[in-house]
Write a structure and sequence with these properties.
Elements lengths: L7 E8 L6 E7 L2 E7 L11 E8 L2 E12 L13 H11 L10
Antiparallel strand pairs: 1-2, 1-5, 2-3, 4-5
């Protein structure tokens, strides 16, 4: 048994028609939220949080939540949608060529 209980819990109460996601109630501290959990799929966007659910021995439908990543958290700036290598390539193709006139 665990010596310390989490204050971030998920209760699973339903399954989607396709069987790939579950309807849940989540308690974080005093707040209770309704939501849905689904597995990560490669190539598909992530909405919300990436969590790991740890089953409790005393209740098969109750899980402790461990947050691994929160996509809603602010990064302090716009999303980085291009790599540095992409930007260098873009500049090499589209940057203005230096003027060819002399100073004298």
């Amino acid at each position: 048994m665990r010596s310390q209980k989490s204050d971030d819990l998920v209760f699973v109460y339903g399954k989607s028609d396709d069987g790939k996601s579950y309807d849940v109630l989540r308690q974080r501290g005093e707040a209770i939220e309704a939501g849905r959990v689904r597995p990560l799929d490669e190539g598909k966007p992530i909405h919300g949080e990436v969590v790991r659910l740890k089953a409790r021995q005393d209740s098969p439908m109750l899980f402790d939540v461990e947050v691994h990543h929160d996509t809603r958290a602010s990064t302090g700036g716009p999303a980085k949608v291009a790599s540095d290598q992409y930007r260098r390539g873009w500049e090499s193709i589209w940057a203005k060529a230096p003027s060819k006139h002399s100073l004298n």
